[in-house]
Amino acid sequence: MFRLMIAFVVLTSACQADETVTAYLEGSGAFRLVTLDGTPFEAQATIDLSVAGRLRGDAPCNSYSAAQMAVYPWFETGAIITTRMACPDLDAETAFLAALSAMTLSEVAGATLILSNTEGGEMVFQAP
To answer: Are 80 and 97 in contact (CB under 8 A)?
Structure first.
């Protein structure tokens, strides 16, 4: 009986539709950060949301990944895991990763992805 219950849970979870922001994207799901809190972001940073339930990308110095844990339009990252390389843009990377983990809402408008929160934080991404 226990094995039957496990099989049922596995099968039903595999059939559930993606409810994260990934399901609402057009194109590849890859974006480049353009502005952070209304200011142009001079360093290079990307986010890729093409895999349901996951996000990954390149921060100014390191690559990163995390779980995507909320249904659209909400946005929540799990623990963000990064590689550990040093570079001249470590301050920009720290700001980027802190902002990303603080975002709670997502909005998709064609080639634009906007992440925001109730404290006024905003990250605007553009598809390449």
So the answer is: yes
- pTM for the model stands at 0.84
Q: Which residues is 104 bridged to in the sheet?
A: none
Print the SS3 string covering 17-76: CCCCHHHHCCCCCEEEEEEECCEECCCCCEEECCCCCEEEEECCCCEEEEEECCCCCECC
Residue range 88-116, pLDDT digits in tens? 999 999 999 999 999 999 999 999 999 99
Q: Which 3 state secondary structure label does DSSP give 117?
A: coil
Q: Would you tell me how many other CB atoms lie within 10 Å of the CB of residue 51?
A: 14
The closest of 73, 71, 74, 79 to 52, measured between CA atoms, is 71
CATH, domain range 18-126: 2.40.128.270
Q: What is the residue type of 42?
A: E
